[in-house]
Amino acid sequence: MDRDESENGREDMLIDGQKQGNVSVPREFNVNYLKLYYAKLFPYADMFKWMSYGNDGKHPACDQSYFGRREFSFTLENDIYLRYQSFNNVLQLENSIKEKCPFKIDIGPVYSVDPAKKNAYAQSGDNVFTPVERELIFDIDITDYDDVRYCCSGADVCLECWPLMTVAIKVIDTALRDDFGFNHILWVYSGRRGVHCWVCDGKARRLTNEQRAAVADYFRVYKGNENSSKKVSLTGPALHPFLVRSYSEVLERFFETKLLPSQNIFSTEDRYEKILEMIPDKTATSELRGKWQTKKGSKEDINVVRWEQLKNTLQSGKYKAQGLRRCVEEIVFSFTYPRLDMEVSRHMNHLLKAPFCVHPKTGHVCVPIDPNHCDEFDPTAVPTLLQLFEELNIGGTRAEDDNEWDRTSLGQPISFFRSSFLQPLLKSCKEEMESSYKAKLQQSKSPLSW
């Protein structure tokens, strides 16, 4: 593509990108950019390998129908919704995405039969169409933290409140690995206001709905709603070891060093009254209110000063009741502990947006997040369609067999996905498949025992 042709094409795309149908869209997102993205950059082969879990090879234990029983859901322009899409191979998947140009791709479970043929099975009268395998998934959205962040609200997010998502990643990831023994965990930026987690170990994929609910409930601490003044109740003589670890290793320090100053949660009467409502002792709240209503000049951060006063008051000799001492921890948990969409995790048939999709409201690509370096993740610096389009234009044309993403900002996220997640996962799948196959062979050779 020469320079004149490139500039004209880009101008047309920008004009087209201002409005699609009756909906205004950001400059970073339009159909033409999306078509180019699907043509040049979307990692079809990697997604296929991931969703196949080793069943795309020639090993005698491979289930050749496995990938074809996976549900994909496409949301097209103007909210046209196509569920129960299925594909037998990577070429079918790639051709369908390029043809339909979905604004969003969701991934569902692996069913007992090809989901595209579900109606035929339904008419047979046999209830054979049922989900049989699905990653254990978690969905965490910053909008669920609106009562504890004052910099943004709704879908807006900034670098002051995004660390709440970082804390969620640290707490959940550590527990999934240390408490449940899972190894193959993928964290993905949702593209706008949250994070998604895919737990891909074989034992996680085969959990029943009841078992998924039990895992989700293990993480459940935040149980309030917008009408509850006290949303966290830490009952019992001692905290669960998981909660103790989360508090001591992540939550307490984050609350005191980051959240207090960034969100100014004690800076006004309206804000500190919300915290006083969490303390079930009128004498203690009256004492604190009296201190805070008397304004004294101080060079120290008022949020830090008032938090120390609250801790000293509740943990002093005057208030020895365990419930009051526990209030300090409950306040920290209320402000910082991960708030999960429990229903997404509990049921096998939930859809979740595919990694490397593009969010139509922001133009951001849904890139993986390294949980070991999640503090460094900046949602405002994630590649957009416009940015990728410009990077491709700068590089000019390349040979067909070259990886286009290597010369764009998508190169690093795809490399991370491959090396840190996909390769170890496939190695594990191969070992599990070989072990299972050998066990079956051994069993078939063994004489009957009574």
From TrEMBL:
Keywords assigned: DNA replication, DNA-directed RNA polymerase, Metal-binding, Nucleotidyltransferase, Primosome, Transcription, Transferase, Zinc
Tree of life domain: Eukaryota
GO cellular-component term (any): alpha DNA polymerase:primase complex
GO terms, biological process: DNA replication, synthesis of primer
Keyword Kinase part of the UniProt annotation: no
SUPFAM superfamilies in UniProt: Prim-pol domain
Single GO MF descriptor: metal ion binding
Top-tier EC class: transferase
Cofactor(s) in the UniProt record: Mn(2+); Mg(2+)
Enzyme Commission numbers on file: 2.7.7.-
Family (UniProt): Belongs to the eukaryotic-type primase small subunit family.
Identification of the protein by name: DNA primase
Gene name of the record: LOC105128163
